[in-house]
Amino acid sequence: MEKQNTKPAYQNKWFIGLLAISALVFISSIFGSGSETSTPSSTPPAPMKSFSSMGCLRVSATLVDGISTGLLESVPTGLAAGFVSSEFNDVKMVALEFIPNGTTSKEIAVFATNDNNLNDDSVDGLIFPADGFAKNFSDWGENPNLNLSAVTSGVSEAKDCLSLLK
């Protein structure tokens, strides 16, 4: 019998080629090819926020007029929205759009009230300024026991509700 001259596998051209291809696949998997396309997310889009789904409250023209009696040389635009504060029992925040005296820009002031129903034709509650604009542009007295400010629960939510009416 004749002895065949065989090389070890690592010295064969096919083995070296296979090793080179494996190395390239490994390197490209680490660094990526850069040409991948992103697939759309399977997460459904967030539902649109609506006035009622956010818990916003309609504000009657009577209450807008009532709050406006305390505005200092400013004119209300008639646009207002309410939101129930979770910090206080029976307190609702009312965001009111107005135009300060001497300007043409519209601003928003937030007032607190314990009015039973913001959307009826009566004003049967107290009114206090809740944020800086309400304190600076009205003569409604502050209630030191409430310690109202722009970070009080319901203030930013009332503003968000007002923006949904625009």
Task: Fill in the keyword field for this structure.
about 170 residues, alpha+beta, 5-stranded antiparallel sheet, 4 helices, rod-shaped
How would you portray this structure in words?
The protein is α+β, with helices and mostly antiparallel strands. The protein has a domain at 57-164. 25% of the residues lie in helices and 18% in strands. It is built from four helices and five strands, in the order αβαββββαα. It has a five-stranded antiparallel β-sheet, with helices on both faces. The longest helix has 19 residues, at 13-31. The termini are far apart. The model has no long low-confidence stretch (mean pLDDT 86).
The proportion of residues forming helix, as a percent range, comes to 25-40%
Helix/strand/pairing class, anyone?
alpha+beta
The major β-sheet equals: 5 strands, antiparallel
Unreliable residue stretches: none
Chain-averaged pLDDT = 86
Q: Write out the strand line-up for the largest beta sheet, numbering strands in chain order.
A: 1-2-3-4-5
Strand content: 15-25%
The first-to-last residue Cα distance is 98 Å
- How many β strands by DSSP? 5
Instruction: Give the number of helices.
Output: 4
Q: Please write the string of helix (H) and strand (E) elements.
A: HEHEEEEHH
General form: rod-shaped
Rg value: 34 Å
